[in-house]
Amino acid sequence: MKKQTLFVAFSTQKGGMGKTAVTVLTASYLHYVKGYHIAVVDCDFPQLSIFHERRRDGELIVRDGYFKRAAYDMFRSLGIKAYPVKDSTPEKAVEDAQALMENSQKEFDVIFFDLPGTLNSGGVIKTLAAMDYIFTPVSADRFVLESTLQYATLLNEKLISAGKGNIRGLHLFWNMVDGREKTPLYEAYENAIEELGLQIMKTSLPNSIRFRKEMSGDSRNIFRSTLFSADKALLKGSNIDLLADEICEILKLNDNGKQ
Ligand SMILES: Nc1ncnc2c1ncn2[C@@H]1O[C@H](COP(=O)(O)OP(=O)(O)OP(=O)(O)O)[C@@H](O)[C@H]1O
Ligand SMILES: [Mg+2]
Predict the structure, then answer these.
(1) Which of 24, 44, 211 has most ligand 1 atoms within 8 Å of CB, for mutation?
(2) Has this prediction a pTM greater than 0.90?
(3) SS3 154
(4) Ligand 1 atom with minimal separation from the 212 CA
(5) 2 C-alpha vs ligand 2 centroid, how far in Å?
(6) pLDDT, tens digit (0-9, with 9 covering 90-100), for 102-118
(7) Burial 186-205 (b: 16+ CB within 10 A, else e)
(8) CATH for 6-256?
């Protein structure tokens, strides 16, 4: 079966829900641990958080002997390079992704797009419509949920059901879940989500301080980085591995992706 690069975005109009953090963590896990060929197009202009994070990560491994050696060892043993992070805008995102694809010797399995939250900013709807899959983080707060459901319903009606664009799936997932278990409230919310014809993923991400910190010289532990995947010990309990695995299943990457 011919391989095809999939375009994927973590997207919601609600700010601060974890789009950028989950993009970095998932991209790094899939690229450095699972061996998929990944690229990231950062089109959340002008913040360009991931683009700048990559620059800081790069500077850190040049400056810090420990990380420098770790990076050298990892890249040598895996025989791969870091995934590209292209700075872009919503208008130019698809064009920039195509240029990445043309200039890469190896076909990408997935290109992640980090988009601005607002549909009003130019080019966002067009770029969303070019995605194959959209994953939407949501937290169990009534107001967040209401606005997220509105957003997802809008995309569902205007783009997916209307057959406009490429989107093959829109999946919500819980982020920042407090406590060890999901409360019965979640079940009630999940029923409401399903009644709207929307899908919620099995995996949810816990609320955990580790998500808030980038790789830094202050600690040898790595969780969030564009140049490494999370350390096994920190990955455990973060559910990023489970989320990424569920995403692979939805994308059917296990069949024809990794080589
Ligand atoms: N599961 C989590 N537990 C704790 N903190 C989290 C979790 N997920 C994300 N965060 C933190 O929440 C903050 C907002 O996340 P992030 O910047 O990824 O959101 P965003 O949706 O990209 O926001 P924006 O709308 O500004 O682009 C960050 O500090 C991030 O590290
Ligand atoms: Mg962001």
Answers:
(1) 211
(2) yes
(3) helix
(4) 31
(5) 33
(6) 999 999 999 999 999 88
(7) beebbeebeeeebbbbebbb
(8) 3.40.50.300
